[in-house]
Amino acid sequence: MTIRARITRPSTIAAVSVALWVFIGVATALFTLFMAAYVMRMDGSDWSPIVMPWQCWLSTILLLATSLMLHGANKAGRPLTTRKFLVMGGFFGFAFIGCQFWSWHALQANHITPMGNPAGSFFFLLTAMHGAHVLGGLVGWLRTVRFVRFGPVLDSAMFELRWRARLCTRYWDFLLAVWVVLFAALRWLTPEVVRFICGTR
Question: In terms of DSSP bridges, do strands 148-149 and 2-3 run parallel, antiparallel, or are they unpaired?
Answer without folding.
Answer: antiparallel
